[in-house]
Amino acid sequence: MGHIKTYACLALLSAISAGYLFLRTGFGFGTTPDSVVYIGAARSLLLGQGFGFPSGLESPSPITNFPPLFPTALAAIGFFGIDPLDAARLFNVALFAVNIYLAGLLVYEATDSTAAIAVSAVMWISPALLITHSMIWSEPLFLLLVLIAAFGTTRYINNSSSTALLLVGATAFLGPLVRYAGISLTFAAIFTVARKNLKHAAVVAFAGGVGLVGWLIRNHFVAGDLANRRLVFHLPAIADLVFASNTALEWVGGLILTVLFAALLIFTVLNHQPAMVSKRYGIFLVSFAVVYLVVLAISLLFGDAQVPLDHRILSPLYLVAALYAAIFIVVRAQAKFLQLAWVAFVVVLFVAHSWTAMVWLDRVSTQGVGFSSAQWRQSATMDYLRRTKGMSQVYTNAPDSVYLLAGLPASMLPRHTDPGTRLVNPEYSKQISRIGQHGGFVAYFRRVTWRSYLPTEDRLTGELHLQLLADLGDGAVYRIPPR
Question: For 388-410, how does the pLDDT look when each residue is reduced to its tens digit (9 = 90+)?
């Protein structure tokens, strides 16, 4: 198959994958607390109120715990009259097509093999990419930057192109502005370029630093903190590490297929073929994987103790690992029996991923995920908030869902424990007292069990002397009598 036909097949596969994802998500993309912050920030930008989130106050509260690029992209689409909630679906579907195409293209350029089409097909239905692209998250945009950086560093190493260097510098600049963990992309790009030219690496380092430092300075002036995080050492729980290992096993279709994959990989390594993966393709992919793991470890040990090591968080690692493995296997598996064995494995993996993909998309299309689920949209407590007028100041354990589904800006209840550090909040009593002095309303959702750092319904009732307005089964609404 010639180059043009391969490019056409990759483009067709990418278009089909995006179209299928769009058609199967008519119920809407999945939403989580982070998703609502992105949407709220985009709406705030469209209203000319800056990068903030509506919180029931006169002006949106400045957002510092998320970088600005993804909400800004949603706001840019919003200029055409599309609400950011709908814009996010369109944007991530488009990113799905582009990312699937670029992943296959990178493998094809590295191997000159039409096996790249099979790689794109497997990535299309892989849990790590499919789930991540069907949620309103910033990761798909970050994955695009990783792929562009991979292409840019490859071309730079090949011919020292100034255009390629500019491309690498742009991704180093934008990466941390999509996700703070995007600093891993910056460091990987610096290391890769430095192997050829230290001066050019300094240019990349400057590009990567100026954007992030500029944003952190903005955070300091508008909110008095850099990224809304406290650095306190804490070991990850064993359950978190087990969850991470299960996530990685799903990349290869489960435990049995993982064992089979490892066995085939060992045979491939021992095949003693002279062919090796070109350094210009491998340096950045390996560098990024190592740096991303280090950044993730630092975050878990000193920052966010509650970060789940799920497909979302590990998707960048999956992407570069899958690309490197695919290139390595295609280049090294020269023996006929190995090629047939890998073809059989890919077919089995495709079938396994197809089943997982159908289950996931059935859930997205019929039940919804997160705050987009039928449970939340049909909540009696949420319906009460939508219908009741004059609730000026609302405190709740689910301000994100209240804003998304009831259109009501609300404030989070005070935290008795810092979820990032697991330390007791010394200001909790003062915060509760301040709420009691001013009065307002409390909307308590009983299905919100994952925020164990918030006070229980019984505790709030005693501390704020709450007056019940309505017990709605899935939650309750109270009045806070001002003291």
Answer: 888 878 999 999 999 998 888 88
Q: For residues 56 and 52, what is the distance between their CA atoms, to the nearest angstrom?
A: 12
If we measure between CA atoms, which residue out of 304, 297, 366, 369 comes closest to residue 130? 369
Largest distance between two CA atoms of the chain: 81
**Burial class of residue 56 in the structure, from the number of CB atoms within 10 Å of its CB (0-12 exposed, 13-18 middle, 19+ buried):** buried
Say if residues 207 and 222 touch (Cβ distance below 8 Å). no
Answer whether 455's CB lies under 8 Å from 416's CB.
yes
> Among 222, 228, 148, 217, which Cα is nearest to 188's?
148
Predicted pLDDT of residue 227: 76
| CA 202 to mean position of chain CA atoms | 29
Of the candidates 232, 227, 189, 181, the one whose C-alpha atom is nearest the C-alpha of residue 207 is 189
Q: Which two tokens stand for residue 265?
A: 């990989």
Tokens of 64: 């510092």
Task: Determine the straight-line distance between the first and last CA of the chain, rounded to whole angstroms.
Answer: 78
Type of residue at 9:
C
Instruction: Answer whether 302's CB lies under 8 Å from 311's CB.
Output: no
Residue 412, strand partner residues: 396
DSSP 180: G
412 φ, ψ to 5°?
-70, 140
Rg, Å, the chain Cα set: 24
Cβ pair 119, 299 in contact under 8 A? no
Its pTM stands at 0.92
Structure tokens at 149: 């950086």
Distances in Å between the Cα of 470 and the Cα atoms of 30, 66, 384, 407, 442 are: 29, 35, 9, 20, 11
In tens, the pLDDT along 13-43 reads 999 999 999 999 877 899 999 999 999 999 9
Q: Read off the DSSP letter of residue 468.
A: E
Distance CA(381)–CA(405), nearest Å, equals: 11
> How crowded is residue 459: how many other Cβ atoms within 10 Å of its Cβ?
12
